[in-house]
Structure formats: structure tokens, C-alpha cells
Amino acid sequence: MKSQILLKINNFLKNRLIESFGLLMILVSFFLLASIATYSPSDPNFIYSPENTEIKNIAGFYGSVVSDFLLQSIGLISILIVINFFYWMRDYFILFKRYQFILFSFLYY
User: Fold this and answer.
1) 55 C-beta neighbours (distance < 10 Å), count
2) Cα–Cα distance between 38 and 60 in angstroms, integer?
3) What is the domain partition of the chain in residue ranges?
4) Element (H, E) at 10
5) pLDDT tens digits for the chain (109 residues)?
6) DSSP letter (8 states) at residue 90
7) In whole angstroms, what is the distance from residue 70 CA to residue 89 CA?
């Protein structure tokens, strides 16, 4: 009796943890996409950050730094990477419920 209850609690917590991870990654991808879309070369970045500048990036200072890093390192491909990351996490978040039995059957047996 107790092992069934503990098993149900374990499965419930595992599912909520995986769902919250997927939701967090979707929010991170929205943040990255918004920061890249509102990138301005005059915003402060991780190399040079003047003290009295107006930040035009919608995500603030951190969005300015992250978007500058992504665009300087890999260029416009970073937009496609962020969109790919969003769809990957969306599928992970939505389709996980459908395939969780198959996924966990390989892990436990």
C-alpha cells in the first residue's frame, strides 16, 4: 500500500519537474528571441559598458549583453538557434506526456 502511494508521488513529482523545466526553457527562449530582436549596437555589452547610456533593448542590460554575445559570436544564425530551441522545448514539454511510458520503460528496465 505504501509503495503504491510513494510510486504515485514519485511519478507526480517527476512529471511536474519535467514540465516546469520545459516551461522554463520556453521562457528562456522567449527572452533570448526578444533580446536578439531588439538588439542595438549602441547598447552596453560584455566588453564595453559606458555608465550613462540608455539601454534600448527590451530585456534590459542582461538582454543587451546576451544578444551582443550571440550576434557577435555566431551572427544571425543565433535567431534560428533560438527558434529551434523553442520548438525543441515545446515538443519536450507537450509530447512528453504522450511518450513518457516509452521513455521511462527504457530507464527502469
Assistant:
1) 17
2) 10
3) 2-108
4) helix 2-37
5) 568 888 888 888 887 887 788 788 888 889 999 999 998 888 887 777 777 788 888 988 889 889 999 998 998 899 898 888 888 777 776 666 555 555 555 555 4
6) H
7) 19
